[in-house]
Amino acid sequence: SGVEQLGNMIAEAACIVPFTGAGISTECGIPDFRSPGGLWTRNRPIAFDEFVSSADARAEAWRRRFAMEETFAAAKPGRGHRALASLYKAGKTPAIITQNIDNLHQASGFRTDDVVELHGNTTYARCIGCGHAYDLPWVKARFEETGSAPDCSLCEEPVKTATISFGQAMPEDAMRRATELSQQCDLFLAIGSSLVVWPAAGFPLMAKNCGAKLVIINNEPTEQDDVADLVIRHDIGEALGPFVGN
Ligand code: OAD
Ligand code: ZN
């Protein structure tokens, strides 16, 4: 089966780079974006320039974030996260590239430095001007006190979750590190992503073009199934459960 073949590929590989999307966290209770019931089927994304130019958009963005607070706070790593953490512990995986913002790879045992977050992190906030970090309770208290989204106490620019919105510049360090990892690995695992959002979706292709084997694990077809060496069209928890170590 696909899972058995994946086991052989993992055993033979010297450097495995996992690349994850929202599908790895759905079993943890966090909705993805494009499946039925996904976030973008319910709400239109708020683009970065809207957030910057409109106080209403900022308030709406923060209302949405606070509405998800219980979901993010309660989420624990799933079988997919734990299987990847086992590969990391075993020294087969130097680091992980993720589009996810939920902090669950760190929670599963990856060092913060070894989680390459292409789209940032929603568990804290940053000033979009000076980059100063704020915790979410600080934002929430200000929001409830004034009825509007807070600005930075240092430079008065808007404070936003530390995530990347459409139209916002990609984080340079993460892009550089993801490029190196994609070029160096001999096995690239694209897990739980529709692979429609660029530039993130360029990394599986980059790895493949640099000679790595490409495995796609996703329960629906993706944009890149035709170039993969192995496609496991299956539930991630089921597919990766056998690789969860102790
Ligand atoms: P998507 O929602 O586009 O894709 C998630 C994929 O995971 C879908 O193809 C699902 O069918 C699949 N899936 C969900 N649960 C699964 C499970 N238990 N087992 C197997 N497959 C499962 O999410 P991403 O590809 O991560 O960016 O989205 C990419 C980017 O679009 C996000 O990082 C976010 C979003 O807009 C920004 O906001 C910048
Ligand atoms: Zn600031």
What does it look like?
- With 246 residues, this protein is an alpha/beta fold.
- It has eleven helices and nine strands.
- The protein has a six-stranded parallel sheet with strand order 3-2-1-7-8-9, with helices on both faces. Strands 5-4-6 form a three-stranded antiparallel sheet.
- The site of zinc ion (ZN) has 8 residues, from loops.
- The site of 2'-O-acetyl adenosine-5-diphosphoribose (OAD) has 23 residues, from loops.
Helix content: 25-40%
User: Which residues form runs of ≥5 with pLDDT under 50?
Assistant: none
Q: What is the 3D shape? A: elongated
Return the average pLDDT rounded to an integer. Answer: 97
Largest sheet: 6 strands, parallel
Q: Assess the beta-strand content as a share of residues.
A: 15-25%
Number of extended strands? 9
CA-atom Rg in angstroms: 18 Å
The SSE string, one letter per element, is: HEHHHHHEHEEEHEHEHEEH
Number of helical segments with 4 or more residues: 11
Structural class computed from helices and strand pairing:
alpha/beta
Bound molecules: 2'-O-acetyl adenosine-5-diphosphoribose, zinc ion
Q: Identify the strand order in the major beta sheet.
A: 3-2-1-7-8-9
Give the terminus-to-terminus CA distance.
24 Å
